[in-house]
Amino acid sequence: DDIYDNNDNQTDAYGVFIGWGTGDILQYDEDWYHLAANSTTMLQICVSGELDVLLGMEIWDDEGYIKNLSKPLGEYRVYLLHQITNGEDYYIRIRGAILGDQYGLYFANVTDDIYEENNDRMSAHVIAEDTIYNCVQMDEDWFEIEIQSGFENITIEVHFSDIEGNIDIELYNSAGDLIEGSDSDNNDESIKIVLGNSGMYYIRVAGDNFGQNYDIIWMGEEITPEPDDDTTPTDDDTTPTDDDTTPTDDDPTFGGIPGYSTCFTVFLALGTLVILKIKNRTTK
After folding, report:
1. Shortest CA distance to 57 belongs to which of 97, 105, 93?
2. How many domains are there within the chain?
């Protein structure tokens, strides 16, 4: 086994501290670790390694009760996030298939972001447009945005690394109704939508609560007016109608004379002299 054995039970747990970590542990049996908290903080524990079987992790109190369980994070890692209190003792149990896999174990403290407490819609933190906010996902985070009239075409982006913990986002209106969401298993999430109304809206950010960092930004674009498809004729409309009587070149007569295809209509004042020339003949 490794140099930290015999730590096969809670009584013989190996002593660790926040900031301690190693990558050379062998999992031949249960491994226990003891952390004596010297501050009140959020403790983050990570187990990682190219494991044949994913390991499990638990945190116990000094009375023998399980206080929290780890969650899988990607193919080879598990995380645990737990609030610890100064002066208390905590015991971490690592268990698995006892295959002799090598793994790493790391202890760190994490702090929430400066926008807390924004854990529900009523306490949402107001964020401005086109501004990047650096946040920590340790619990639900709510943000309030104001959509201006004419700029209801909005985009919301949250950037993060999914290997550090999954994050999903949702958009709500001021009545608390869900409008849209994004919940993939990839890095980053985004919502792009044209809203029906301007006003106040709310973004909910939720996930694995592993204390990972993320950036959030939103943008509102001006809505482009729809093109006018009105086909009502105007005064300039010169489209011929069914009652158009303008003669064409195919008109077989001219004033009752066969063979002539040109027609003129002339309005004359009384007593006006008119000369018409037709086939080299002149008539009055």
Report:
1. 93
2. 2
